[in-house]
Amino acid sequence: xxxxxxxxxxxxxxxxxxxxxxxxxxxxxxxxxxxxxxxxxxxxxxxxxxxxxxxxxxxxxxxxxxxxxxxxxxxxxxxxxxxxxxxxxxxxxxxxxxxxxxxxxxxxxxxxxxxxxxxxxxxxxxxxxxxxxxxxxxxxxxxxxxxxxxxxxxxxxxxxxxxxxxxxxxxxxxxxxxxxxxxxxxxxxxxxxxxxxxxxxxxxxxxxxxxxxxxxxxxxxxxxxxxxxxxxxxxxxxxxxxxxxxxxxxxxxxxxxxxxxxxxxxxxxxxxxxxxxxxxxxxxxxxxxxxxxxxxxxxxxxxxxxxxxxxxxxxxxxxxxxxxxxxxxxxxxxxxxxxxxxxxx
Amino acid sequence: xxxxxxxxxxxxxxxxxxxxxxxxxxxxxxxxxxxxxxxxxxxxxxxxxxxxxxxxxxxxxxxxxxxxxxxxxxxxxxxxxxxxxxxxxxxxxxxxxxxxxxxxxxxxxxxxxxxxxxxxxxxxxxxxxxxxxxxxxxxxxxxxxxxxxxxxxxxxxxxxxxxxxxxxxxxxxxxxxxxxxxxxxxxxxxxxxxxxxxxxxxxxxxxxxxxxxxxxxxxxxxxxxxxxxxxxxxxxxxxxxxxxxxxxxxxxxxxxxxxxxxxxxxxxxxxxxxxxxxxxxxxxxxxxxxxxxxxxxxxxxxxxxxxxxxxxxxxxxxxxxxxxxxxxxxxxxxxxxxxxxxxxxxxxxxxxxxxxxxxxxxxxxxxxxxxxxxxxxxxxxxxxxxxxxxxxxxxxxxxxxx
Lengths: 345, 402
Prior knowledge:
The structure holds two protein chains of two kinds.
Chain A (H helix, E strand, L loop, with lengths): L1 H20 L3 H10 L2 H7 L4 H25 L7 H18 L4 H20 L1 H4 L2 H21 L16 E2 L2 E2 L3 H24 L1 H11 L1 H6 L4 H25 L12 H14 L4 H17 L7 H15 L3 H26 L1
Antiparallel strand pairs in A: 1-2
Chain B lengths: L2 H23 L3 E7 L4 H19 L8 E7 L4 H14 L4 E4 L3 H14 L3 E3 L6 H4 L5 E6 L1 H16 L3 E6 L2 H18 L5 E5 L7 H10 L3 E5 L2 H13 L7 E4 L7 H6 L7 E4 L8 H14 L6 H19 L9 H13 L20 H4 E3 L1 E9 L5 E9 L8
Helix pairs in contact in B: 2-12, 3-4, 6-7, 12-13
């Protein structure tokens, strides 16, 4: 682990120093660092990497959102992909049928998805564990089926010619331009996720995750907080859905939102580490890169993903985030012990 | 050496390796294939494309150039199809894209290939909107849905009756077949649908619909669905007590071998339009049937096999006629040359029931290469199914265009 984290130690120290100035400073610096990424990737002569980065960034937004309800609040949801679909379809239809610009269609889609999050979250008030998983799975899948059989929602042909976002004459119509949009959204999403985690709401979520009864005894409104977690998570899914829909070539189809996509999303969160914000980010990156590099081995690809999931649950239930956490805790413990022994000497 | 220096060295080394790999690829014609490699038959169609290109390589390539084929699975999902197309175009630097199987995947890929100026040739997708997008870079080997509907409707209206029930599955090709058939029945015979139901792409229970159809007293039932779904619907139509005298009409996927294999006796009498009939008695068709039987274990190949085969032959002809430089500096020029060479393929006579011709204009008239649909009926179901050809119809080039 020491060896694994060694290259990043300097970077972590650097960002920690920046955070002492103000909490947002490291984020702004990271943002500036990430701005030239398309040019760097383009210099490799393979623009596909930029497309891949955009896809990963959308999945990061999705998995960070899922982590709020699943990781922070401990609610088992398998309907997140349905919310992603609602965001995508709403934004597309507003843009195509009513001529709304992306900048209006996307927030509207986020709001609509947030409202849908209440519906998906309602069962959590009465249900837990596997029952809640089944209820949310049913709701998520019914969204997809509804899209599939409703011509106004794209039905079998899908929704085509979804216009890309535009600012004046600047159109986000290629990978490079679109990167700035999804990267900004992902950064804001991660930052807000950290802010939620640090807030009273975040602590209430975690209290519910650890012990519902204890949380309730301490005055936390459990049903309201559970619903809030679903709504916040849905807002992320709505934003990710809208970004996915408007990304060139601007086409969505109900097959993009199946249970397979949901399982892939869960794999990202589990691999990264449930309850770790960076876990969602790391998971999205690793899963998508593994997926992309095993494309030619389509015969064994589902088996590979299934095996990874099983091995993770057995050997690394806390995911990569958990391993890093354990390393950091151990490091802190060793440091404390050294300090104590120095003091004693 | 510091960690940063090690990282930079590794990056440079990776860049060098990539560069060397790109140099090594010069002189090859790179072809990307994205298809639905998820079902048993779907994998065999994709494998046939790769195998046929491989055979060309074994025979010495095309004008001395070998073909480098990369096959990716799009799972019949548009986002994965688009990702595959981008990977093949920007990473593999392909000269030609083959794909996809599903209309809902081919539709967005048309926009990708149009923007990146990469020729795309479609093996199976029938949705008429594909060529109506006006891309100068797309070519379709299969018969367009607009032609199938015309042939089906004419036969049904003249020989079966006008009171038809429709069961339409939620995949793009079936929806298109279903809607086009209804439109044709209305325009040719003024016949409204007696019953219409939308069903899921992988629906398993059709009994309620079948009871309603039975009580509607229809002349025929059109089942527009993918193979396995259609087979289940056919079986349940008999379980519901709808007599054999009510004709069962299949969409173009009725041609796929799982339909008679799964439906068994319920497949008998089902008729459909396709681009190829295994009952074709031309020598080329006999040889092809035998080859598919030996190589892929399929009793009688459906039109998705024949279209995959025809596609490779058309590509072979076009690449043979294209003046290719095959170096990285001329990638765009080579892609244009391949597109123009495909557009120059005229009157190709292969396994398809009629000649396939393309032309330069970016219109459906020029890019829907095959206009001849063959009307086929199953005379025996099961794994050793038998078909017969009812009719062969070549449609006017503008047919079905608004």
